[in-house]
Design goal:
elongated; disordered N terminus; Methane Monooxygenase Hydroxylase, Chain G, domain 1; mainly alpha; 3 helices; single chain; about 120 residues
Length: about 120
């Protein structure tokens, strides 16, 4: 993946992907303002998946299980779309306004992410 210019200009800020060194950097991500909402949504999905496990253990009717799988899948897709939207509005907009080359790299990165998402 391509490193996108950070808002603070030092290469370690909000829009740079984490380094491969294994050391965590403290950054502000595009989704930071909605982090609690994302965590709440993911906990609900986690509950849905646990419910699916219980349905299978209990021998629930196949169409009911499939319907619940579809519901959990849609919930995860909504989280993905929200995260991608936040990334576009925060990191990509910044990269495009800061330098033409950074903007192109940011768009290439988003295109790659979209490719991953639609391979469902």
């Amino acid at each position: 993946m391509t490193t996108i210019a950070s808002p603070n200009g030092d290469g370690t800020g909000a829009c740079s992907p984490p380094s491969g060194s294994g050391t965590a950097r403290r950054t502000t991500r595009g989704y930071a303002s909605g982090k609690d909402d994302y965590l709440t949504r993911l906990r609900k999905v986690e509950g849905q998946v646990r419910g699916l496990q219980k349905m299978i253990e209990a021998g629930a009717w196949c169409p009911d299980v499939v319907t619940q799988v579809a519901s959990a899948t849609r919930a995860l897709q909504e989280v993905a779309v929200g995260l991608l939207s936040d990334h576009l509005r925060h990191c990509v907009v910044h990269a495009i306004t800061s330098a033409e080359a950074d903007g192109g790299d940011a768009l290439d990165e988003v295109t790659g992410t979209i490719r991953q998402v639609i391979r469902l």
